[in-house]
Design a protein that fits this description.
The complex is a heterodimer of chains A (123) and B (373). Chain A has 4 helices and 9 strands; from the N terminus they run βββαβββββααβα. Chain A starts with 6 loop residues before the first strand and ends with a helix. Chain A has one domain: OB fold (Dihydrolipoamide Acetyltransferase, E2P). In chain A, the strands form 2 sheets. In chain A, strands 1-2-3-9-8-5 form a 6-stranded antiparallel sheet. A 3-stranded antiparallel sheet of chain A has the order 4-6-7. With 123 residues, chain A is α+β, with helices and mostly antiparallel strands. Chain A is globular. Helix content of chain A is 18%, strand content 36%. Chain B is 20% helix and 32% strand. Chain B has a 6-stranded mixed sheet, sandwiched between helices. In chain B, a hairpin with a 5-residue loop joins strand 5 and strand 6. The longest helix of chain B has 12 residues.
């Protein structure tokens, strides 16, 4: 269910650390809790975010939720496809990334959950 | 996430059916209700293009009967019930002494001296006590809370008539909008009402609670080939907002007058007086200070209930309902604003979590179904 190559937060974000970058999205559990997603508000490229800081908001038809960054770093890119197709977060939550960061404190990744630990939370 | 455990909440006769069929349940007005089945967008679009079935058994029924029934109904509600023939229905307000809302409701004329009110789930006890107290001295009438005697299913969408007709001998084409008939549906004694809260054609069917599950199952089976799906309260809310139908408790309450809610058309100005009539007349002749207006966002943002409407850096109004609607694919809503900001085309600024977003007053309804004529 939850890919082993991702790390997870207790706020239901995932992060994929690869090639010196961190791609961030929300988990399948989170998208199911939210329901049909209609809007994702993302930060400016170049912004510095801290671990646990709000970097955006995600809205379903019924609810609004904040997005918390799993790690600290500089925003390198945002997924512009989500503006036209926010529903891809529902369809493929673990592929529909929201931002890519350049991590400034790689050791922070050790504070995140692995797939097995996250599966216990997402029940 | 939920504060009340299901055990403390009231349940409709279909509660176990919803759970068994995998609906996502939430607390609404003290009831444990399905918020969605397949998803709000999917359900919303089904109702706009095919048909959807809702359990709205949480709605309350209060009946007024006796020789003074009409006098009593005229006194406690704002609309002119003398215009109702037996078998006819009207939208109305249960008003306070100052013309604000105790609740909004549908008034059914069941017989010459018998009326049935369909009221909001969270207000049943309050409404019943209010009516029982206020009709004193205004007609020889008995007031009965008969909510537990009815389950209520809403079949909504363009395919509704064709689906329901397969289950009943009642000629549905002969039931006009805001009229009802009695007869059998799936061999169950029923009141069939051409009403709804979606802006789409459809029927609301009242049956005894013990027969609710059989009706639910029969209607879903009858509509399967036509694309009928079960729906929850989430889609009911987005559908009613797209149709610019108000939600009492969200868009208006006991601090909002019927005129402030933009519902002058449900005030019977010519009838002999009712609770709050004087105050409403004053407002009509120039003392109206604010008004509920439909708005559309002019940039990518979704205003929600409670977001302030701002002007010159201060809050001058408030969003009462707001969402991104699945059919129109626009962010729309209602806001209570000063009268001078209520004209069509007036630009509004809404504070969405600290960010100012542009909106504009538009005409209602946001969505209107194509007329059959």
């Amino acid at each position: 269910m939850y890919p082993a190559d991702l790390k997870y937060t207790r706020d239901h974000e995932w992060v994929r650390l690869q090639g010196g970058e961190a791609a961030v999205g929300i988990t399948d559990f989170a998208q199911r809790q939210l329901g049909d997603i209609v809007y994702v508000e993302l930060p400016e490229i170049g912004r510095q975010v801290k671990q646990g800081e709000v970097f955006g908001t995600i809205e379903s038809v019924k609810a609004v939720s904040e997005l918390f960054s799993p790690v600290s770093g500089e925003v390198l890119a945002i997924n512009a496809d989500l503006a036209a197709h926010p529903e891809s977060v529902n369809a493929k939550p673990h592929e529909a990334w929201m931002i890519r960061l350049r991590p400034s404190a790689p050791a922070e990744a050790n504070t995140l959950l692995d797939a097995q630990a996250y599966t216990e939370i997402a029940k | 996430m939920s504060s009340s455990s299901p055990a403390q909440l009231k349940k409709t006769p279909l509660n176990a059916t919803h759970r068994a069929r995998g609906a996502r349940m939430v607390e609404f007005g003290g009831w444990d209700m399905p918020v969605e089945y397949s998803g709000i967008t999917d359900e919303h679009l089904a109702v706009r293009t095919r048909a959807g079935l809702f359990d709205v058994s949480h709605m309350g029924e209060i009946e007024l009967a006796g020789p003074g029934a009409l006098e009593a109904v005229q006194w406690v509600t704002s609309n002119d019930a003398s215009r109702l023939a037996v078998g006819q229905i009207q939208y109305s307000a249960l008003t306070t002494d100052t013309g604000t809302f105790v609740d909004d409701l549908l008034v059914y004329r069941m017989g010459p001296e018998h009326y049935l009110f369909v009221v909001n789930a969270g207000n049943i006890m309050k409404d019943h006590e209010w009516i029982a107290a206020k009709v004193h001295g205004h007609g020889d009438v008995s007031v009965v809370n008969s909510s537990s005697r009815y389950a209520l299913l809403a079949l909504q969408g363009p395919a509704s008539q064709a689906i329901l007709q397969t289950l009943t001998g009642v000629d549905l084409a002969a039931i006009k909008y805001y009229w009802f008939a009695t007869g059998e549906v799936a061999s169950i004694r029923a009141t069939i009402s051409r009403t709804g809260y979606t802006g789409e054609d459809g029927f609301e069917v009242f049956v005894p609670p013990a027969s609710a599950e059989r009706l639910w199952t029969s209607v879903l089976a009858a509509g399967r080939d036509a694309g009928l799906i079960p729906c929850g309260l989430g889609a009911r809310d987005t559908l009613r907002l797209e149709a610019a139908m108000r939600l009492c408790g969200s868009d208006m309450d006991d601090q909002t007058s019927v005129l402030e809610a933009g519902l002058g058309w449900i005030v019977g100005w010519k009838k002999h007086g009712f609770l709050g009539a004087e105050r409403l007349r004053e407002q009509k002749s120039g003392a109206l200070a604010r008004k509920l207006v439909p708005f559309e966002m002019k940039e990518r943002a979704i205003a929600r209930h409670g977001h302030p409407v701002v002007a010159d850096g201060r809050a001058v109004g408030v969003v009462t309902s707001g969402t991104q609607t699945p059919y129109l694919k626009k962010a729309i809503g209602f806001a209570m604003v000063p009268l001078e900001m209520s004209a069509l085309g007036t630009p509004l600024e809404i504070d969405i979590r600290g960010r100012k977003a542009r909106a504009e007053v538009v005409a209602e309804p946001f969505y209107k179904r194509a007329s059959k004529a």
